[in-house]
Amino acid sequence: MAGFDAGQVAALLRKIGANDELLANAYVFGSVVSDEQDAKTISTLHKAGLLRPDDEPGEFRVTTDFKRMLNRLMRKQSSYRQLTDMGKVIEALDETVKDYQLSVQLQEHDDAEFYLDQLDDLLYETKDGLNTNLDNMHYGIVSQFGFVSTLANKIRQNERYLNHAQSLLTELQQIDPEACYEWINWPCPNEFARKITGFIYWFNQVLLRLRFIIDNMRLSLFRLRRDEKQASQLRNMARFLRQHPEFEIHDNLFEDPALPEALKSAPPMPLSCYVETHNTEHEASLVAIVQALRKQVTSTPVKVRDSGEVTLIPVEKVNYQVDFFDQQTELLFELVIRDSSPVSAIAFWSLSQVEWQDELQTIDPKAWIELVFSAYCSLTSEQQDAFEIKMKGVQVAGTSDNYSYSDVVICLR
Hints:
By secondary structure, the chain is mainly alpha-helical. The chain has helices at 6-18, 20-29, 39-47, 64-73, 86-105, 109-142, 151-172, 190-243, 261-264, 283-293, 324-339, 345-351, 353-358, 365-377, 381-386, and strands spanning 32-33, 51-53, 59-62, 343-344, 387-395, 403-412.
């Protein structure tokens, strides 16, 4: 890491460790007040970038960078809202890849190593940020949004998580990871190729994981809404029982002469004319009562499915067939690169006739010219920039833009 050494990092960590209680109070309670005893310590932490002045005079808060780090370590539900602009990430990666490729081709090893480290840091930050985003969303679902207590707030948080996840999926689906293979479409080092292919594999796995999280969010939202409906029914039932008590217990019941002696000496019975909705022991029985009081719905008879047989046909193995003349066009381009001199398609066709006849292969000169031209058109943009094609032909009589080509010449730019 340029500009820093281990001593500076160790000094900052020592400041954090020596003032752990003060920093913890500032993080948990929002701010700390500077008094005569802590004035020097707070001033030191302020210069180190760990505390910042608050709006009120004499109060200090944790800086944004330090608080963000603590939020991530304490798994606070804040970073899930951050949308990753993957389009800008791809643009930054593309610029870094081009710089690295140019440095390798010019044999500038120090610059190439710098760009490779920069690419590694950018890939790691992208993966770490998005993985943390997904981990926080998954943690919120697994914990049933335990950072809020009421069902209404749980449902609202679930809806926010779901909207965020769907927006994130829509954004990530606009990126085609297969296009990133163009970055390694050159004689690149293995270490660079592994980083790019690893990024493409990770990106495809992130899409699958995000779709899985969205499905779990929808299921969790359905369950929370069902629980809220049951809780509302229980509250309505409790309200009804309070308004229509079936019996009342008098305060002077112990003086009634008809009361048995065994009950007079017994401890008071915790009876009431309403249902305690906060008591979880009554929840199961009350839910059973609500289900019994619901209107019975006529069940639809299950239709018997038709059965049939599936005939499995063995997979036929087809041998891979290599096109002979496609290989010859590749040899033509290799000859141009190896000799660094122009090669005529007709000249190559003439010199190869003896060898082709030995292989029992023939092709018309016009078809050979069209095949060479189509092979040039199928190259990538960067490969076409490396070659130059020259067409030799005569304009067709009676036309303005039609030509009858007699030869094509391939050469390096």
